[in-house]
Amino acid sequence: MSRLHLWTLTAMILAFIMCLPLRLAVSLIGLEDAGLTARMASGTIWSGRLEQSRLGPFHLGTVDTGLSALPLLLGRAHFVVERAGNGGTGPLAGSLELSSGRRAIDQLSGTIGITGTALGGLPVESVQLDKFSVLFRDGHCRLASGKVQLMLAGRIAGLDLRNGLSGSARCQGRSLVIPLAGQSGMERLTLTIDGTGRYEARFGIAASDPMTATALSAAGFSSTAEGWHRVFRGRF
């Protein structure tokens, strides 16, 4: 192959990459396999928009996104994600990263809606994140930080938990662990997520009055020496 032909081929490859449609890149890079879907994808891989996007059970909404060039040199698909907050959804900003054996969320802040059945029927309405980061490498949690607040829809066994449960993320063993507590300190939920997306949510409520105890029992909670507990399990 002559030098001219080599340069021509290189230029064509670079032009293809520069103009690669975002909708095609989502599939090629493996974001669909990671659970990312959208009603419509427009623009290029470097500057595009995903409308009504979701990551598994989490509603991201309409977000602007683009691939970062420098991580790509290391074989990592690093997408910056930003939502302006129009339409009452609130702003969202952070990044998602995907490569062989590696999945990460970096410095994600904002509110994300969640389907009602995402945590085994636990009535979670939304998740509020403050600089939330997590890195799974080879199926193991390697790094986790940031604040998480679960906002619950309505009452559970007559208890008003609309102020939500909040806590900080950390790695424990191979899993991501987020211990959450209500404002009163009587409600605690420990959410554990492994590298395959399987989760376990252990919900504990300290209650001693008979009416609340009856309501908790009817809601599927079991009485223990430490209060009332129920475990929700599933996979995102």
TrEMBL record:
Protein name in UniProt: Type II secretion system protein N
Family matches, as InterPro entries: T2SS_protein-GspN
Organism listed in the record: Sphingomonas lacunae
Entry coiled-coil feature ranges: none
Keywords: Cell inner membrane, Cell membrane, Membrane, Protein transport, Transmembrane, Transport
GO biological process, alphabetically ordered: protein secretion by the type II secretion system
Signal peptide: none
Gene this protein is translated from: gspN
Subcellular location: Cell inner membrane
Entry-linked Pfam families: T2SSN
